[in-house]
Each structure stands twice: as C-alpha cells, then as structure tokens.
Amino acid sequence: MASVDGVIDWLSEMIPQVESEVDTWNRLWGALSGIHGLGPAGINNLAEEYGTLKAVGTATEAELSEIAYITADLAPEVVAACEQWDRQVPDAPGDRVATDADDPLVVDRSVLRPLGHLFER
Question: Could you read off the pLDDT of 15-56 as tens digits, one per residue?
Fold first, then answer.
C-alpha cells in the first residue's frame, strides 16, 4: 500500500509526463488533421515513429511514405502541413465546457470526452 506522500510524489512526476504527451498529440493533430485522407491511424503512426511534430517536419517525403497509412501522395502534404503549422492547437470540448460554466464548481460532464474528439470519424 502506498503512502499519501508516495502518491503525491508519483503524481508530481507523472502529471507533467501526461501533459507533455497530450500536448505532443494535440500539436500533431492540430497540424495534420486537416489533410484529406490522413486519419487518426496515420497520425498515430507518425507519432510513434517520430515522436514530435518537429521531428515529423524534418523527415523526407520518402521516409514519410514508408510509414503505414502515409502514401506517396500524402507525404508532401504532411511536410507542407508541418512547415505551415501556425502553432494553434484547437480547444478540447472540455475546455469550452469549463469556460462556459456559470459556477466554477459545476461542469456538465455529459459533454466531456477526454481526447475522444480526436478519434471521431
């Protein structure tokens, strides 16, 4: 059984890692989700192979087209999207709900879907 101090220490270590991973995915999704024909599976494969949007942007078209779901036609669009990314990350549904709440302690949880909006088809 973990002590309270142990849990606090673990959370203090893990929360920044989770936030970093979510930020990385949001950057990838924000930059690449507008490419017609490139879906969550392709973006996920890019994330797994390269880790960050910056790393994806340094890859060649030939290297990108070796990734599953990244065709030779999509590779130039991926490169262009990385170069043109304006560093804007769309708000998550939970952000809008929290902003619109009348009482900071009352949030309608029925519309909160952490990361769920990233996988809608």
Answer: 888 888 888 888 888 899 889 999 999 999 999 999 999 999
Q: Is the pTM of this model over 0.70?
A: no
Q: Report the greatest alpha carbon distance in the chain.
A: 54
Q: What single string gives the DSSP state of each residue in 86-121? A: -S--PPPHHHHHHHH-SSTT---GGG--TTGGGG--
Rg (Cα) of the chain, in Å, rounded? 18
44: nearest Cα among 32, 58, 55: 32
Per-residue pLDDT tens digits for 69-79: 999 999 999 99
- Residue 103's Cβ-side half-sphere holds a number of Cα atoms within 13 Å equal to 4
Question: Which two three-digit tokens encode residue 42?
Answer: 């392709």
pLDDT band at 92 (very low <50, low <70, confident <90, very high): low
Under 8 Å between Cβ of 43 and 32:
yes
Location of structure tokens 């902003």 = 99
